């Protein structure tokens, strides 16, 4: 299985990525985790990423594309992967196609987890409190949702046009949502 997870911040992509990766026995690759690790390590990339993340903006494509290309070249993705947080716009989707073509493989599906914006804000504020995430304040969350709507949501049309899109409601118990995703992907 080679898939991407789409959906607004707080829709449950990270939670579902971990569960689906275990079920499908493939690595879950989260650009958010990569960014946070670089920030914590005070790398040059981390400092640049932190500036964008603190402002609620997305890290530029050049930085993100390079990290993803490097990650997809590693041995553990030979049998598949689940990308969480990438691609986030049609240009990155085209770049991902190029990366996969270089590896001689294709994407199997694009799974969009949908969720109501106000529920997403509640989820992210709760997560910020529990995990101490400074990048999850309400104004930043609202900005991230706005950025998602304008730059990432067009991926839905991109992948639907290629017959790869699977949409699943992300509201409900975690196991219930996982079951919905697996059923939808298998039926696709």
Can you put this structure into words, describing what you see?
The longest helix has 15 residues, at 117-131. The chain is of the alpha/beta class and 188 residues long. α4 runs parallel beside α5 and α6 (117-131) crosses α7. A 5-stranded parallel beta sheet has the order 2-3-1-4-5, with helices on both faces. The protein is 59% helix and 12% strand.
Record the SSE blueprint:
Blueprint: E1 2-6, H1 13-24, E2 28-30, H2 31-40, H3 44-54, H4 61-72, E3 81-84, H5 90-103, E4 109-114, H6 117-131, H7 138-152, H8 154-161, E5 165-169, H9 174-187
Parallel strand pairs: 1-3, 1-4, 2-3, 4-5
Helix pairs in contact: 1-9, 2-3, 4-5, 6-7
Outline of the structure:
The chain contains 9 helices and 5 strands; from the N terminus they run E-H-E-H-H-H-E-H-E-H-H-H-E-H. The two termini are 13 Å apart. The protein is α/β, with parallel strands linked by helices and 188 residues long.
